[in-house]
């Protein structure tokens, strides 16, 4: 039931508010003074109100309190209903409800001030109501009538601005536009439109002109194209605005050859930009090679108001000594949105059906789902059509639709239709602030939220990294991969403090993740060298093993249950556990130590995974596979990003153990098959268009990634750096410095094939030293790889032995890629 309500809550809320508005209107409109009410005395009264006894008592109460201003409640409920249907679900209470209540009282006071003796409904109701009369009389006694007029009118305008969240200029533009359109339509009915059209300057430019063309069909109704009625539903209608469809920023004629740009619409008129736009186009018409007019139009449109984004859920931003960032520090998205035109959807659906019919594929379009960058058409083929024939026509359909990107999903899982995704003529930017304001991002069930952006149908998508539990990200230069990784880390910093999340950042390019160098969430300094990244991965394995020992000791199956258990441990037991750990430290048994306090999540982000594989493929692959197999339950998660998903980078073991994958636009179909196990990523758009595959999904889902300006990222980073400096883990620092990370990595507990073997102190005794030395003394040349194969050692351990032999004079110095020369005779002969 909860899922059902979440899916249709916008429609349900809109219907409730609309019904409330109608109920109030009917109750107030049919009010009779003789109806039963709080002021009526007697028996046998018959109610004449349209809404019965409840409507009669409600109307009497509202009229008695607020007078004629009670109708403002009807307007307010209707406005809330309209906003809800458009996608903005209101919250009961809050500042806006306070402004509405104060505005209602102010209007009632104004009526009582100017018409104190006027009464309606046979003299039973004062025009200003009881509240308005009391407020006006109280103010007049202090400020006199003229002073009260100034105070109330000023207060009313301020409250109107607060309630509507619009400036006075925008509010005054609405009646001006209404009168202007009414005036123009009146002249059109009288046949005078052509006369006034002739007095206006010509606005059509030739094809190829650099100026901006202004087209207003209202001044010439004969040229206004007839709008065809859609024969199929448009799902996800928040991406389509019928009013804006007639004022879209691009129009294409039937031949598809000439495209003219229009700078018209409700937003430009509200800002009073008609003069600037007209002037810019006149100058562009005088000189077709000049682009000044277009630039001035863009500058004017850049000053358009912003759309305020507010969180729908209340959160506690204070976490002990830390304070989470405020969503208000991010810049609001523009108020206007590049929404797809209904006529474009209809035109492309007709072209789609006609082109398929030319190849013998009959069927019909059942629905369309417009999104930020693409629109998916659900095509139902005839019963005798083979699905493979549709898949082979991707290039032909792309040519017919003049589409930059076209992808065919044949069929859609669980449906009897084929999905055909085609790019929109205008792309709508997805802002990270909209995703962060979504209540799913702050849900208690989503511990590590990854803001994917919006789906192909426009729905907001947030996933939990714990459930994937690791992530592979691939994409060429300019595809939006780095922007997504930076946005994902920034989103995690909005949700978690350093107490609940620690980061390990690996950035061989030293560019993309440099902005996070000073955040207190860092567990170790940002790693810029691939060889140190291998050491960090090895330390993460030891940390994983220590966490599993701790979870086993306290009987926990996951990091969440472990944290709940240890938080309830009394102080005496904590001191006892601390003594046991100190004893292990003194006895050099660090591999037996355990945690007895709550542990944070650890997220390891690698910006260019291919660089690590190029330096030390064997160790990197072993570490990544081991972490991917076991680290989920202990709260360690991987995000591996790369530009080219080659076979030698994304090996079979890595793909098997990391089912969560994201692919932006890649270079070839082969790269798409490597990262997603199927083609399609090579047809994506640039700048944020992605395919997402997670466990349980049969087909990748298309999303459009969010975008975050660099200035906003700097604000968030400064917010965290001002609260404290990074407190690096001492054991992790030891690992980076080459002292073993606080663990005995070469002792009895380290196996010979362990990728961490051989990282201990060089002074430690190796049990195979005598055996290896005896064999080396019988050889003329030796190398680390030769020792590795002969004695089945890990490469770091074999290399350490070679270096030890060099210091002791057993072998000579390195000679490039050639083996080292043995300087001693037989070990047996010397003994």
Structure description:
This protein has 831 residues and is α+β, with helices and mostly antiparallel strands. It is built from 29 helices and 21 strands. The strands form six sheets. Strands 12-11-19-18-17-13-16-15-14 form a nine-stranded mixed beta sheet. Helix 17 (530-554) runs antiparallel to helix 25 (730-736). The protein is elongated, with a radius of gyration of 35 Å. The chain starts with a helix and ends with a helix.
What features would you highlight for this structure?
21 strands; 831 residues; alpha+beta; 29 helices; four-stranded antiparallel β-sheet
Layout of SSEs?
Elements: H1 2-29, H2 52-66, H3 71-85, H4 95-114, E1 119-120, E2 125-126, H5 129-164, H6 168-189, H7 193-199, H8 242-245, E3 250-252, E4 259-261, H9 266-270, H10 274-286, H11 292-302, E5 318-319, E6 322-323, H12 342-358, E7 363-370, E8 374-381, H13 387-391, H14 394-401, E9 406-409, E10 418-423, H15 432-436, E11 449-455, E12 460-464, E13 471-474, H16 481-495, E14 501-506, H17 530-554, H18 559-566, H19 571-586, E15 601-606, H20 609-615, H21 617-630, E16 636-642, H22 652-657, E17 660-663, H23 669-676, E18 689-693, E19 701-704, H24 710-723, H25 730-736, H26 769-776, E20 781-782, H27 784-791, H28 795-807, E21 820-821, H29 827-830
Parallel strand pairs: 13-16, 13-17, 14-15, 15-16
Antiparallel strand pairs: 1-2, 3-4, 5-6, 7-8, 8-10, 9-10, 11-12, 11-19, 17-18, 18-19, 20-21
Helix pairs in contact: 1-2, 1-3, 2-5, 4-5, 10-11, 12-14, 17-18, 17-21, 17-25, 20-21, 27-28
């Amino acid at each position: 039931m909860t899922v059902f309500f979440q899916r249709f809550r916008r429609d349900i809320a809109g219907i409730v508010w609309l019904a409330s508005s109608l109920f109030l209107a009917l109750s107030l409109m049919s009010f009779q003074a003789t109806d039963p009410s709080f002021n009526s005395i007697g028996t046998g009264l018959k109610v004449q109100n349209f809404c019965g006894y409840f409507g009669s008592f409600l109307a009497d109460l509202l009229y008695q309190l607020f007078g004629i201003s009670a109708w403002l409640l009807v307007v307010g409920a209707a406005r809330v209903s309209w906003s809800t249907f458009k996608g903005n679900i209101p919250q009961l209470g809050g500042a806006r409800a306070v402004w509405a209540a104060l505005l209602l009282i102010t209007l009632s006071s104004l009526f009582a001030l100017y018409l104190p003796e006027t009464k309606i409904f046979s003299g039973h109701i004062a025009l200003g109501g009881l509240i308005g009369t009391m407020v006006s009389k109280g103010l007049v006694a202090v400020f006199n009538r003229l002073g009260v007029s100034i105070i109330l009118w000023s207060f009313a305008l301020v409250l109107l601005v607060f309630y509507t969240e619009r400036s006075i200029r925008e509010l005054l533009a609405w009646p001006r536009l209404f009168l202007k359109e009414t005036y123009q339509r009146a002249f059109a009915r009288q046949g005078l439109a052509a006369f006034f059209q002739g007095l206006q300057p010509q606005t059509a430019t030739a094809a190829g002109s650099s100026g901006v063309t202004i087209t207003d069909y209202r001044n010439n109704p004969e040229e206004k194209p007839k709008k065809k009625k859609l024969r199929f539903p448009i799902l996800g209608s928040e991406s389509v605005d019928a009013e804006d469809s007639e004022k879209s920023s691009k129009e294409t004629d039937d031949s598809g050859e000439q495209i003219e740009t229009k700078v018209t619409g409700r937003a430009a008129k509200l800002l009073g930009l008609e003069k600037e736009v007209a002037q810019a186009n006149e100058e562009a018409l005088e000189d077709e090679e000049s682009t000044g007019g277009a630039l001035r139009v863009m500058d004017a449109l850049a000053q358009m108001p912003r759309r305020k984004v507010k969180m729908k859920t209340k959160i506690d931003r204070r976490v002990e000594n830390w304070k989470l960032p405020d969503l208000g520090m991010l810049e609001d998205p523009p108020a206007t949105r590049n929404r797809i035109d209904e006529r474009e959807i209809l035109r492309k659906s007709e072209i789609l059906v006609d082109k398929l019919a030319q190849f013998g594929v009959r069927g019909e379009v059942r629905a369309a789902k417009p999104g930020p960058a693409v629109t998916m058409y659900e095509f139902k083929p005839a019963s005798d059509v083979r699905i493979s024939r549709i898949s082979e026509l991707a290039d032909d359909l792309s040519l017919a639709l003049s589409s930059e990107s076209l992808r065919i999903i044949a069929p859609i899982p669980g449906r009897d239709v084929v999905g055909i995704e085609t790019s929109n003529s205008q792309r709508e930017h997805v802002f990270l602030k909209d995703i962060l304001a979504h209540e799913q991002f702050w849900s208690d069930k989503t511990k590590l939220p990854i803001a994917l952006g919006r789906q192909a149908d426009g729905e907001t998508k947030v996933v939990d990294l714990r459930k994937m539990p690791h992530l592979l990200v691939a994409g060429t230069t300019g595809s939006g991969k780095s922007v997504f990784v930076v946005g994902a880390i920034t989103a995690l910093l909005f949700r978690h403090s350093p107490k609940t999340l620690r980061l390990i950042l690996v950035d061989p390019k030293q560019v993309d993740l440099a902005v996070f160098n000073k955040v207190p969430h860092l567990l170790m300094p940002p790693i810029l060298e691939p060889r140190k990244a291998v050491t960090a991965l090895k330390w993460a394995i030891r940390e994983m093993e220590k966490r599993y020992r701790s979870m086993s000791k306290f009987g926990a199956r996951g990091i969440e249950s472990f944290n709940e258990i240890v938080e309830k441990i009394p102080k005496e037991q904590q001191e006892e556990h601390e003594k046991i750990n100190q004893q292990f430290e003194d006895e050099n048994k660090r591999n037996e130590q355990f945690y007895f306090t709550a542990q944070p999540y650890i997220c390891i982000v690698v910006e260019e995974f291919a660089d690590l594989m190029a330096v030390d493929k064997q160790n990197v692959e072993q570490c990544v596979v081991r972490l991917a197999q076991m680290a989920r339950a202990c709260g360690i998660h991987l995000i591996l990003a790369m530009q080219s998903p080659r076979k030698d980078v994304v090996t079979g073991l890595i793909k098997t153990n990391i089912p969560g994958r994201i692919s932006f636009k890649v270079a070839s179909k082969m790269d798409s098959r490597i990262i997603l196990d199927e083609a399609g990523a090579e047809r994506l758009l640039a700048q944020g268009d992605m395919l997402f595959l997670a466990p349980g999904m049969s087909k990748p889902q298309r999303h459009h990634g969010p975008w975050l300006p660099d200035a906003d990222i700097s604000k968030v980073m400064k917010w965290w750096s001002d609260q404290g400096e990074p407190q690096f883990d001492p054991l992790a620092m030891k690992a980076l410095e080459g002292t073993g990370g606080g663990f005995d990595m070469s002792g009895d507990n380290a196996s010979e094939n362990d990728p961490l073997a051989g990282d201990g102190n060089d002074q430690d005794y190796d049990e195979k030293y005598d055996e290896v030395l005896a064999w080396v003394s019988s050889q003329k040349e030796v190398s680390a790889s030769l020792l590795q194969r002969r004695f089945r050692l890990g490469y770091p351990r074999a290399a350490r032995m070679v270096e030890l032999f060099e210091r002791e004079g057993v072998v000579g110095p390195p000679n490039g890629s050639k083996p080292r020369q043995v300087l001693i005779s037989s070990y047996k002969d010397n003994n």
